[in-house]
Amino acid sequence: MKVVIIGGGVAGLTLGILLHRKNIDVVVNEKFIGIEGRGHAFLMSNDGYSILKDFFPETKVPFLSKKVNQFSLKRIDKEELIKIQLDGWYCIKRASLISFFYSLLDSNTLKQGRIFSHFIFENEKAVAAVFENGDVEYGDIFIGADGSNSKVRDTLFGKVTFSNIDVKEIVGISGRSSIENQQASVFQKYQSIEMGLAFGFIPISADELVWFMQYDATFSDGQEENSPEKLKLFCKEMLKDFPVEVAEILDANDFSKTYIWNTRDFDVLPTFHKNNIALIGDAAHLALPFTSAGTTNAILDANSLASLFEQFDDSENIFTTFYNERSINLASHTEQGRELKKLFLNPNLHSERGYIVPLVSNLENNYDALIKPLKVYYFTDPVCSSCWVIQPVLRKLKLEYDEYLDIEYHMGGLLPSWVNYDKGNINNPSDAAHHWEVMSKGFSVPLDGDVWIEDPLYSSFPPSIAFKAAQLQNKNKAVLFLRRLKEMLFLEKKNITNIDWIENAALSCGLDSSVLLKDMKGKAIELFEEDLRFTAENKINSFPTFIFISGSGTKITLEGIQSYEKFEDIIHQLIPFAVKKKRSIIPLKLFEKLDNMTVSEFAFLNDTSKENAELAIGELFDAGLIEKFNTKNGVIWRHKFMD
User: Fold this and answer.
1) What is the pLDDT of residue 367?
2) Residues 110-134: what's their mean pLDDT?
3) Which of 511, 522, 454 shows the shortest CA–CA distance to 485?
């Protein structure tokens, strides 16, 4: 079998390299000679980046890339609208990536200077691709990877209907390096709240950044395209009210190497192939650039298609399966791009909860949206030491009975303030410090009470309100956020009433910290007050307290620190058919899922001895897969995230 690829961009080259490494005869045909200068740089998600790394296990991927850790969207007066941690996004120079790809292909596999003309057909199947220079390349399967203006696509299906060019984008690489948060690798974007106009920039090296200006196409009469000088004047005039750093970036830019992108898309095709010819990348599907999904999707296309060559011998099965695997996600990306464009052109349509992050969304796991047979009201508080002690039990319930339990978190308001506070033996911060030390020793749980001496919290209300704000964004991430707040407090002695620590925790859990801080001043306060009323109505006087309610209305209340077996008994009493989930306990996988554990917690979750737990954790630590965090009353082991 011989595969002929038409187009030597990211999609075509990636597919060519993958097929070549599978010992499939392949030829990549590129119209340009040498490295084409257009493209500058692009964002790529970890979905695509991980594939690139897996291509070349024998060497470090050498193309220039920079991890992007954070996205920040601000108004032009610098008020922050969005601030969110990014997980697995990279900024890559296109020329560097293409150059690296070229180095992996010999002249028999990569043929340049070939502009596609037409196919030669026999019995309705293509047998050869003909190029304008007279070259003819025979093959068995043909792949059109020739971009958004694909001639191969026109041959198969005729002209597609492109959307109107409503937004234009100017892209350049600036030499200015003294940008705020340069080392933090922030994707910074300023956006007008009155009209469709935005400016963004991303560091790509120590001394370069890629920048872009997006603008409503009606703002332009086309004069900016006539010369570099007019283009610069146009940009500076459009952005004159933006922060001063924007003008500095433009001043350090070479406008002779800057280009204008007429953004458009088309509906996802009903199929990506006809007989033995198929399309991938922008030739097959084109989304607007607001999602930053184009390059990642090109690589995912190539990876998906290449893997199918090992599963099937005939092109029909390969191409049909390829379409089934890719079309649904691609259609969602197209729709997301259109929604982002609509909001960009009409800023007044943004909701009071803020702007949408202009990156392709990961599909949320809808499992927790399913109806589960047992409702559990969990009454807790961020500063409750007993709620910290019971964490391993909750984690194990999640691992083994999650499909049955709909756990609803409610904040109980344990510490309104220290004024006239009287909870048994605790009347002031020093009493709390002593109580925590007793709890730590009594339950062999790391728990450092010195925070109450060194930097005592004045109330548990601020972190409780922050949790309610997190729930407004994502209930699963809110639980992770609450866990992180508790780690900061109980292990790291951080005062979690401090807004900086709250923001830090929010970012680390994938929440939009800017929106969370705004919600803490409004809707989240109302939700917290509802929790306090609900707690009072249920006559909850201690934490943790759990109220289990079955589908028939049977109610069981469980108070305080209880054994795991007690929880299991209640589950089986209310749901006789409940079956504990069988799970493969792989130490590293458990750390990847839960992030951190003590030795005793690891032993409890794995149903093993403390000695075996210490051995397993020691092996992971020696392999550099987890790291050690020492506290006064014990050690916590954390998963070590690798780039």
Assistant:
1) 41
2) 97
3) 511
Could you give the CA distance from residue 628 to residue 638 in angstroms, rounded to a whole number? Answer: 6
Q: How far apart are CA 130 and CA 29, in angstroms?
A: 11
Element (H, E) at 156: helix 151-157
Q: Which of 30, 227, 232 is nearest to 131 (CA)?
A: 30
Residue-level length of the chain: 643
Question: Minimum mean pLDDT among 92-106, 317-331, 374-388, 577-591: which range?
Answer: 577-591
The one-letter code for the residue type at 431 is D
Neighbours of 561 (CB within 10 A): 15
Q: Note whether 204 and 93 are within 8 A (CB).
A: yes
Percent of residues, the chain, with pLDDT higher than 90: 75
* Alpha-carbon gap, residue 40 to 95, rounded angstroms: 7
What is the structure's pLDDT at 585? 75
CATH placement of domain 587-639: 1.10.10.10
Q: Residue for token digits 């390059």?
A: 295
Compute the distance between CA of residue 635 and CA of residue 301 in angstroms, rounded to an integer.
45
Residue type at 412? G
What's the distance, CA 531 to chain centroid?
Answer: 31
Q: What single-letter amino acid sits at 480? A: L
- Burial (CB count <10 Å: 0-12, 13-18, 19+), residue 412: buried
- Residue reference for tokens 């109580």: 435
In the DSSP assignment, the letter for residue 315 is: H
Q: What is the pTM of this model?
A: 0.81
Written out in words, the top-level CATH class of the domain with range 366-574 is: alpha beta
CATH architecture of 2-61+95-163+265-349: 3-Layer(bba) Sandwich (3.50)
The string over 477-511, giving b where at least 16 C-beta atoms fall within 10 Å of a residue's C-beta and e elsewhere, is bbbbbbbbbbbbbbbebbbbbeeebbbbbbbbbbb
- What's the one-letter identity of residue 14? T
Q: What integer best gives the mean pLDDT of the chain? A: 91
Return the bridge partners of 167, or none: 216
**Phi, psi (5° rounding) for residue 82?**
-135, 140
pLDDT above 70: percentage of residues in the chain: 93
C-alpha angle 205-9-51 in degrees, rounded to nearest 5: 65
**Type of residue found at 462:** P
Q: Which residues contact 232 (CB under 8 A, 6 or more apart)?
A: 250, 253, 255
Retrieve residue 631's tokens: 């506290």
**Rounded to whole angstroms, how far apart are CA atoms 395 and 388?**
11
| Span 355-367, pLDDT tens digits | 777 776 544 443 4
Q: According to the model, what pLDDT value does residue 368 have?
A: 47
Q: Where are the domains of the chain?
A: 2-61+95-163+265-349, 366-574, 587-639
Number of helical H runs and strand E runs in the chain: 21, 24
DSSP state of 487: I
Nearest to 617 by CA among 630, 599, 594, 590: 599
Which pLDDT score is estimated for 364?
A: 42
Residue 176 CB coordination number (10 Å):
18
